[in-house]
Amino acid sequence: MSSNTPDITAEHTLRFDMVKTNIGNGYHPATGVFIVPVTGVYVFTWTIREDVHNYHTTQLMKNTEAVDVVHLSPNGRIGEVTGIAVFMANEGDDVFVETYTQFNAGYISSYPAGRSSFSGWKLA
Questions:
Q1: What gap in Å lies between CA 85 and CA 74, rounded to an integer?
Q2: The C1q domain covers which part of the protein (predicted)?
Q3: If exposure means fewest CB atoms within 10 Å of the residue's CB, which of 18, 20, 84, 107 is most exposed?
Q4: 17 to each of 31, 50, 64, 119, how far by Cα in Å?
């Protein structure tokens, strides 16, 4: 992410707009969605940074199914949490990170000293 998100609510798709590598153009930064180009086993990882009194639960989604969930509440400090998931995905599946249905307050941090990020690659 190029900058902090504004205050966000439940089930909000996160858009990671700083794209470093996008071979095949499967990731769409305007929507925050990766559309699986080829069926296979994929690895996805996401890191969420929080400042002081903000907290969020985020989940990696495959279409409408939550694949993995992480939570961060830094309690007056700056912190980060990373999730990683390995799973089978079919051509055309949508993979994205969204906030969970509850446990969200404030903004998600992303600035030059530390970025919130999302990445993925085909393993097999």
A1: 23
A2: 1-124
A3: 20
A4: 9, 18, 22, 12
CA dist 104 and 53 (Å) reads 11
- Residue pair 27/44 in contact (Cβ under 8 Å)? The answer is no
Distance CA 74, CA 47 (A): 14
pLDDT score of 54? 87
Q: Can you give the three-state secondary structure of 29-44, one letter per residue?
A: CCCCEEECCCCEEEEE
All residues at 6 or more sequence positions from 45 whose CB lies less than 8 Å from its CB, including other chains: 82, 83, 84, 85, 118, 119, 120
Max Cα–Cα distance, the chain, nearest Å: 43
Q: How far is CA 32 from CA 53, 56, 103, 113, in A?
A: 25, 17, 21, 22
The neighbouring-strand residues paired with 66 are 61
Q: Identity (one letter) of the amino acid at 103?
A: F
Lookup: tokens for 114: 């530390």
Digit-coded pLDDT (tens) for 24-54: 999 999 999 999 999 999 999 999 998 888 8
